[in-house]
Amino acid sequence: MATPDYLEHSMVASRLREDGTQRGGLFARSSSMVLIWALLDVVSAVVAGLAAFRIRLEPSPLPVLVFMRLSGSLSSIAYLFVFCAYLVMFARIYGLYRDPETRSALNEQRMTIQAVLTAGLLLCGTLYVMRAVGVSRIVVALTLVFTMALLAARRAVWRRVRERRFLEGRETRNVLIVGDGRVGQALRNHLQALPHMGFRFLGFISVDGQGPSSGNPQVIGDVRNCVALARTMFVDEIYFSTPGDKDTVVAVVEEARAAGIEVRVVPDLYDGLAWNAPVEYIGQFPTIPLHRREFPRSAFVLKRTIDLIVCVLALLLLAPVALTIAVLIKLDSPGPVIYKANRIGRKGRLFRCTKFRTMVVDAEVLREDLTHRNERDGVLFKMSNDPRVTRVGAWLRKYSLDELPQLWNVLAGDMSLVGPRPPLASEVERYNLSHLRRLDVLPGMTGLWQVEARQDPSFDHYISLDTAYVENWSLLLDLRILARTVGVVLSGTGS
After folding, report:
1. pTM over 0.85
2. How far apart are CA 238 and CA 236, in angstroms?
3. d(CA 384, CA 31)
């Protein structure tokens, strides 16, 4: 299936990591996401241990008294944390802290139970060697049972939430397959049969130079323009299902690495595995990663957590303000209070963006007669003294209060508090290839452009600021933008 040179390159490329270690090993470099999962496992084990202590000891009406009783059993508490250390070690060895896409739910639950039992067996051996007769074996057994239940339930809930978002079309991974032969077709069928895993097949790439003229309607491009096409379609992964020219494959891998696109090769079930390359399974399909994009998953989880907390607090605190605005809009002009329009989100996903209505009802129709008065360069449309804006709408726009309903978009996961402005589909159609970089992240209620150059008419400056945000994103940058947004809103620089 694959040539020795091809697989040799696969083996070398897949092992290229900053610290020279392989993913998933016990002593591989820990990411912050691994630390978060390990901390959750420790918390679950401690909760299970305390529950076991409470059942074994005399029930106490106050939780405080339980901890007072435990203070007299320091050896038991010490061995509980020994168990936590064993649990984290074996969970890491069994790969439970890796991305869940590479394993099934049943396999994950089986490995979870195996990790707990192995850690428990090692704990029992430690208790025997240390002659810890003061530690109740019943407490140990209950701790193991409760830990298994908590870990299995937590992982099942987390997987169910992820799968639900995948089925809704959120956070999916777009895939192109190079080669439409037997292996490529089988991989396509496999990915489409497992929508809960979050992979979305977009098309085949030919290796014979024919491209879309090959006669297969699902062949959408040629391997020579594979990466450029992938960028326009917001592709996350490219799979090679057929051998190709080594120089071409290396060129695609290098170009994909620069674009932040992952590349994998599907080895033959016999020849590929015989080369002992590091294989990762997508469902039941073996793949060898040639290039893996390092994604700061834990930072984005924290960003999403901040979004949810701030949104809930803001919706509660600003509810009277929103109700007052709704009444003013209704009294000022006929029409609905909320304006909903289609916007383009992350990876080109269409969503309904909500705002308070600031224009007359037929504003979109009137826009055609006002295009000659556009004061912005290129794609964007903006004009001062817009006759379509209502009296209340002008005041809302000045202080950006019209965007308060977008908190619901943030709560739903279509937007974030900070990010590029969500564009119209008509704007995206006029984007160049480099402009699509701003769609790699969730759009935001505020962003770098809003606090740096809100009144700047230059479209190029607008794009450059959004691109700079995407390429230099950090939580600290988000916090700085949020802090500056407060000043921008209070100064009334909106229009």
Report:
1. no
2. 7
3. 49
Residue 395's identity, in one-letter code, is: W
Tokens representing residue 431 in the block: 């984007």
Report the amino acid identity of residue 337: V
Q: How many CB atoms are located within 10 Å of the residue 266 CB?
A: 24
Cα–Cα distances in angstroms (integers) from residue 458 to residues 104, 377, 380, 454, in the given order = 49, 5, 9, 10
Q: Please report the domains of the chain, with CATH numbers, ordered by start residue.
A: 4-16+172-295 (3.40.50.720), 32-167 (no CATH), 298-491 (no CATH)
Max mean pLDDT among 27-36, 46-55, 180-189, 411-420 falls in 411-420
pLDDT band at residue 293 under the 50/70/90 scheme: low
Q: What is the pLDDT of residues 153-203, one digit of tens each?
A: 999 888 888 888 887 777 788 899 988 888 888 888 888 877 777 888 888
In this structure, the strands spanning 219-222 and 262-265 are unpaired
Distance CA 346, CA 436 (A): 10
Bridge partners, residue 205, by sequence: 178, 221
Read off the amino acid at residue 237: E
Q: What angle do CA 173, 176, 179 make, to 5 degrees?
A: 150
To 10 degrees, the CA torsion angle through 219, 223, 229, 233? 60
Report the half-sphere exposure of 90 (CA within 13 A, side-chain side).
19
Q: Are 1 and 271 in contact (CB under 8 A)?
A: yes
* pLDDT single digits (tens) 295-335: 666 777 888 888 999 999 999 999 999 999 999 998 888 88
| Residue appearing with tokens 């002008």 | 394
